[in-house]
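Researcher: Excuse me, tokens okay?
***
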Amino acid sequence: MAKENKKFNYGLYAAITFTIVTLILVLITVFTFKGRYIAFNGEKVAVNYTDTILQRGDGYNAYKYTISAKSSKYGDFVRVNYMYPLIYTDYTPGADTKKLSGLNADANKSDATKNDDGTLAGQLADKMFACYKELINQYGWDNYDAVYTNYFTKLIEVRKEIFGDDYLSDAIMFSAIEANVASYGDSLTGTKKVVAADGKTVIQEESTGLYQTVFGENYKLTASVTGSESVEDLAAYKASLDPAVLETYGITADDISEARAFNLDISDGSETIAQVVVYEVKIGNIWYVDNLSTDTSAIYQIAK
């Protein structure tokens, strides 16, 4: 029987935030450096994109391989299109936020916000997790617009209940959703016991994940390319892409010089349990996953 997942101790987490954030920044740097080389190889892009989703249900970070992150950091894409319109009054994409009034002004902070040691922020993430799971079960991450729109609308409501103010910042929004992304991954993979530096205080309890329950304690899920083919009618393919959406990515269909479809098998070590077709486009010398054409729902079905 699977062990019940324990809630993260956010009070203790707040005390070691600096160390964790430093580690995350190092990992991001490594990911970025590695990603620059992977991007020249369409097959590696397809495998890494699929595997990011497969291992932890993490479609959020998988977007770093897609055309949505071509012209700017993916985090900036989320800020401009989904966070800033909620934070700033009369915001339009590209506007200088320094000249706008917003909910991130100190005047909007309640005492609860000013004095929070991370405990209330943890409560916010905990309460938002049910909403996150519901959205992922319904949309996966292919429909990121529905996920971000519904998630952040709910976040504003729940945060006001906890903190008693209208204060809002991109840091708050990223912290909540990224905590939920991590918790969702833990619900699939399970967690190991983590003890604080004092050798006694348990920061995180051990838990059994869904993958372990379904595939066994020593499960191993892999994604491999079984073949690929060039999109022959490139003009028709490019015409099928929404130009308005491409504009939010900072590109046009004319930037695309080639498109390919990569067929991938997902295996549990003994048999194929799902199949995915990843569409990629080439811009310059770099391959990007076409998130507008790729359907990853089969991967999320594994988690169900």
In short: Residues 1-8, 11-22, 28-35 have pLDDT under 50 and may be disordered. The longest helix spans residues 17-38. The first strand starts at residue 194 and ends at 195.
